[in-house]
UniProtKB/TrEMBL annotation:
One Gene Ontology MF term: oxidoreductase activity, acting on the CH-OH group of donors, NAD or NADP as acceptor
Domain 3-beta hydroxysteroid dehydrogenase/isomerase, residue spans: 7-102
Superkingdom assignment: Eukaryota
Keywords of the record: Oxidoreductase
One Pfam family named in its UniProt record: 3Beta_HSD
Gene Ontology biological process terms in this record: steroid biosynthetic process
Listed name of the protein: Phenylacetaldehyde reductase
Length: 152
């Protein structure tokens, strides 16, 4: 299944539409993933931050899609003309768990787990992720990658 191109193009399309409002959009909060930060780099013994990018070579197709979509977002915003610029924040949660909105199962929820494998997932509660989005949208210190160059 092709996941990289739709993720990158979808992100690009939304952000370009925001830019066309010529100042009508002040800030965008992009939901990314820990896969964009640490995908393929789990045993390097480092503390990951906004300065890190996943390993393109070692990432899964999903991880590559998140990595490339987020990099595309930062590059696009950085290169916008001043009259089209808006602030960008990204939220990079791990595996999101919690109550579902519609009260019924959906495709993402229809999974059987015949055994419990020995895996480690950085799990987040969906309500905490929602709270992070609200903070990212309202905090004056949220936007940007805090002195990080896009190519880093």
């Amino acid at each position: 299944m092709e996941v990289i191109r739709p993720a990158v193009e979808g992100t690009k399309n939304v952000l370009e539409a925001c830019a066309k409002t010529k100042g009508g959009v002040k800030r965008v909060v992009l939901t990314s993933s820990t896969a964009a930060i640490c995908g393929g780099r789990y045993d390097e013994g480092i503390v990951f931050s906004e300065k890190e990018w996943a390993s393109e070579e070692a990432s899964s197709p999903y991880g590559k899609s998140k990595l490339q979509a987020e990099k595309t977002a930062w590059e696009l915003v950085e290169n916008l003309p001043d009259d089209e610029k808006f602030e960008l924040c990204t939220i990079n949660p791990g595996f999101i768990l919690g109550p579902i909105l519609q009260g019924t199962l959906c495709t993402s929820m229809e999974r059987e787990v015949p055994m419990v494998p020995n895996l480690c997932y950085p799990a987040c509660d969906v309500r905490d992720v929602a709270g992070a989005h609200i903070t990212a949208m309202t905090s004056p210190t949220a936007p940007g990658r805090k002195g990080v160059q896009i190519g880093d």
